[in-house]
């Protein structure tokens, strides 16, 4: 039987094998075509080619991206629930969990303020909307009707409606509807209850840890459909909207992408330096996930992989399990940049001069309204429209129609920035709490090939079949897992060749 005890996962009795696999040197170097990122790049390239050469065909291929995203979303809610519960329960006491939650909220709000602020500064300096010179009296806003309708539903009654939105109508409705922020609230409540139970809740924690590992096994299978999802998403984007990348709209898109890069380089780069690691090395480490997000325009598609990779890089499961799922609802840096830039761009297009104080008020309002944006379909555009509704006397709400057509091209920038910010935030918070394994992080970032994400996902799935401590193995499969765990420990004991 594999050695047990309290693992690095924080789960009593769980074999501590994930870190072992992450620590062992790879048996042989993978060929280029064996890497997931290679096939995602092939899918993106093929999608661009189809969209340019056969736009009518490309416009009909969105179903591939939608299918892939649905496959991932099937397991995201249970994965987040199980991971958050196990992570908080692994902290051992509620005071420690509360301290981690407070640090997480403070960090997320500070970086969001920086993102909103940088968006305001760059849009006022570059002023891409001035050249349009539109008149609200003659402007056709029909393209924005669906978005404005969604914004009306999302905007609701402000803060009180947001509080109501946090609580699902039933325990299972949050999972059925895929409302991640509601799943997170339920997970925190269950984790607090299990922590209060002490040893009596240990069995439930182990069961949830097993569920989490099974979900990671499913994700490993689903991820090999990522190239098809990237192909369909990129073919649709180029085929459907390629003709709209012209004039001042193109200038606005370029301004947005440059602002995202500026935020990542300056703000997130500074966070990386304070936490003691290199931004460029970190980006190289998550290149697979960045490419998948680029192709699908959804950062949710790589959430389970990020959980695994950040833990393997030296962040404890208790921190990863809380900060990553929370960040998907409360740390949307790319969305924050998009919201401030989009609002002022619309004002510039109609010749509206927005005062400094109004822009500050807009920033504060968007800081609040952006929380939980991931739970809204078409989060960035709909949340922007809902925010503009509160300032309609200053900025024409109908102007949202200006950016409906190009939103798809900007969604990739939002998703990539959100993903990068959440990962860096997790490592920074782990450093802040003093729980980051800095030596392990340095080794992983210097040699990303030392971490095989697919192997870690496979291990999690296999470990789910390992019997509880003291129970007989009972099956050949369980014995095979035990032997694999023993092999891992033996390999870890040998010096790693680098």
Automatic annotation (TrEMBL):
The chain crosses the membrane at residues 36-54, 74-94, 106-126, 180-197, 218-238, 250-275, 344-368, 380-404. GO terms for biological process: L-aspartate transmembrane transport. GO terms for molecular function: fumarate transmembrane transporter activity; malate:proton symporter activity; succinate transmembrane transporter activity. Residues 1-26, 455-498 are annotated as: Disordered. This is Na+/H+-dicarboxylate symporter. Pfam families: SDF. It is a multi-pass membrane protein. Coiled coil: none annotated. The keyword Transmembrane helix applies. Residues 464-487 have a biased composition (Low complexity). GO terms for cellular component: plasma membrane. Its main location: membrane. PROSITE patterns: NA_DICARBOXYL_SYMP_2. The keyword Membrane applies. It is found in: Cell membrane. It comes from the Bacteria. Keywords: Cell membrane, Membrane, Symport, Transmembrane, Transmembrane helix, Transport.
């Amino acid at each position: 039987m594999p050695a047990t005890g309290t693992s690095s996962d924080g789960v009593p009795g769980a074999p501590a094998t994930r870190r072992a696999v992450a620590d062992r040197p790879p048996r042989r170097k993978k060929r280029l075509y064996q890497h997931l990122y290679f096939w995602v790049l092939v899918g993106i390239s093929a999608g661009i080619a189809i969209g340019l050469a056969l736009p009518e065909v490309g416009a009909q291929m969105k179903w591939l991206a939608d299918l892939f995203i649905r496959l991932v979303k099937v397991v995201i809610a249970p994965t987040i629930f199980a991971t958050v519960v196990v992570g908080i329960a692994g902290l051992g006491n509620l005071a420690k969990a509360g301290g981690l939650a407070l640090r997480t909220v403070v960090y997320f709000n500070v970086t969001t303020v920086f993102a909103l602020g940088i968006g305001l500064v760059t849009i006022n300096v570059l002023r891409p909307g001035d050249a349009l010179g539109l008149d609200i009296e003659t402007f056709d806003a029909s393209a924005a009707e669906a978005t404005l309708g969604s914004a009306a539903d999302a905007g609701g009654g402000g803060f009180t409606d947001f509080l109501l939105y946090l609580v699902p109508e039933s325990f299972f409705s949050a999972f059925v509807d895929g409302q991640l922020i509601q799943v997170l609230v339920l997970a925190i409540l269950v984790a607090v209850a299990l922590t209060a139970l002490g040893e009596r809740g240990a069995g439930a924690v182990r069961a949830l840890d097993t569920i989490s590992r099974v979900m990671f096994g499913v994700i490993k299978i689903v991820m090999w459909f990522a190239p098809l999802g990237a192909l369909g998403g990129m073919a649709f984007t180029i085929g459907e909207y390629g003709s709209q990348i012209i004039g001042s709209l193109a200038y606005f898109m370029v301004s947005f992408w440059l602002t995202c890069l500026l935020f990542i380089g300056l703000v997130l780069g500074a966070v990386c330096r304070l936490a003691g690691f290199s931004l460029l090395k970190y980006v190289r480490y998550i290149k697979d996930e960045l490419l998948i997000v680029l192709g699908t325009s959804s950062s949710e598609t790589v959430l389970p992989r990020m959980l695994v990779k950040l833990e393997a890089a030296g962040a404890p499961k208790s921190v990863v399990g809380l900060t990553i799922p929370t960040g998907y609802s409360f740390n949307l840096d790319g969305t924050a940049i998009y919201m401030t830039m989009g609002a002022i761009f619309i004002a510039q297009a109609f010749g509206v001069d927005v005062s400094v104080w109004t822009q500050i008020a807009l920033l504060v309002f968007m800081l609040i309204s952006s929380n939980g944006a991931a739970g809204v379909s078409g989060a960035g555009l709909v949340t922007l429209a809902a925010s503009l509704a509160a300032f309609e006397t200053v900025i024409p709400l109908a102007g949202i129609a200006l950016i409906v057509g190009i939103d798809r091209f900007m969604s990739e920038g939002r998703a990539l920035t959100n993903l990068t910010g959440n990962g860096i935030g997790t490592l920074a918070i782990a450093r802040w709490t003093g729980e980051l394994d800095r030596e392990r992080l340095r080794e992983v970032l210097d040699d990303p090939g030392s971490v095989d994400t697919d192997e870690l996902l496979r291990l999690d799935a296999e470990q789910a079949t390992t019997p509880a401590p003291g129970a007989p193995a009972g099956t050949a499969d369980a014995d095979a897992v035990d032997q694999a765990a023993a092999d891992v420990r033996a390999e870890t004991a040998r010096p790693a060749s680098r």
